[in-house]
Design goal:
By secondary structure, this protein is mostly helical. Helix content is 73%, strand content 2%. It has helices at 27-58, 61-64, 70-81, 86-103, 105-116, 118-135, 142-166, 174-204, 206-226, 235-238, 249-272, 278-285, 308-329, 336-361, 368-396, 402-424, 432-461, and strands at 287-288, 290-292, 297-299, 366-367.
Length: 463
Amino acid sequence: MSAAPPPNPLLQAGAGKRAGDLFGHPRGLTYLFTVEMWERFSYYGMRALLVLYLVKHLLQPERTETVIGYATIKATLEFVFGPLGVQPLSSHIYGFYVGLVYLTPILGGLIADRVLGQRRTVIIGASLMAIGHFLMAYETLFFVALLFLILGNGAFKPNISIQVGQLYAPGDPRRDRAFSIFYVGINLGAFLAPLVCGTLGEEWGWHYGFTAAGVGMTLGLLIYLYASRLLPPDEIVRRLPGEKRRFGREEWRCLWALLILSLPVTFFWATYEQQGNTIALWADAHTDRTINLIVWSGQIPVTWFQSFNPFMIFAFTPFIIALWAWQSRRNAEPSTVAKMAHGCFYNAAAHLILMAGALYAGPDKASWLWLFAYFVVITIGELYLSPTALSLVSKIAPTHCLSLMMGVWLATSFYGSFIAGYLGSFWSSMAKSDFFLMMAIIAALAGFAVMAFSRPLKALIRE
């Protein structure tokens, strides 16, 4: 038997609390919260503009000749999917970009676990993303910029999430609440991004919006460098020289549980990720965005609708946590797997709302209130699924491959986003009510699949 690894010096023995806790949590959580907020600001700021930028500007025939790699990428996609107009091509580019953003964390997790450690990998990832956002300001380098963003996110995403879990000792009950707090940081950045980057892009020029995203990522990098002394040491550093780690029976049990659960969750993300794709097009061309308030009247900018979901995340999170606590006291809190199934069903209900809005409006534009209701319901679904899954991975994944397993889990969004791009390519050729019904059916089937796996997964997870 190998000797146990040295303890994390940031953790005190026994209670699992750290010296210098702030509001009942390690100070490092505050900094990781802030870093993730700025990273999500940059990501969602760029995402809010991407499809609109492609459809309205970059992929217009007079501009595509100057874009490096455009002809090759278009030819490759058309070889697979057939001839593509501007909107379907934009949808596929969006899907592949968002998908690869969530595939490369497997590589980033492996590099952190085996070679560099979490800290250095996060710094490299943040630097690559900052460069990528600034390159977006140059039309010629559009696909080069996407490559920097994809690789940077792969290095950054799994390792920042793992560091949240490493702030807490095994069995510390604060861990689940910490991930809910961390998730609020994700969505605070996502809320601000369309308001700042989206408004700059729509009103001042696309490149101002992309540059603002780069400034946000740079701030996140600087904050992370400043906070490094408050973060847990890398898992690779804590290993003893020559120590070998092998998977035991319990570890294989956990790995299989995550892999089985990832299959239906992929289809949750395939429908959820329409927000930056076809939902943006629905808001642009099929929604009456007129609003009359006492303090302001006018048209809601298209990109502002992508702030609805993150705003509701941090508005609804306290109520969802309170509900789960109330259910727990009565021994009625849903299991982790049941919560994830609920998330899929809320997703389906959200798309049924838009189907009803499309049918009610007919050939006219639908009221923006239909979109508001859609975001309310899909946000509740996300709260039931996403932070719950992050906490689950951090708890049950083997300690010597935490980053890798977080990357494997995040890859569900790769497949989901790839499928989202494919599904979005039907937007131009389908009646909008039929399109939303298709999304609802896919999300509901994902929920039933999670429910079908519930009993065997409960045994595997030992929940």
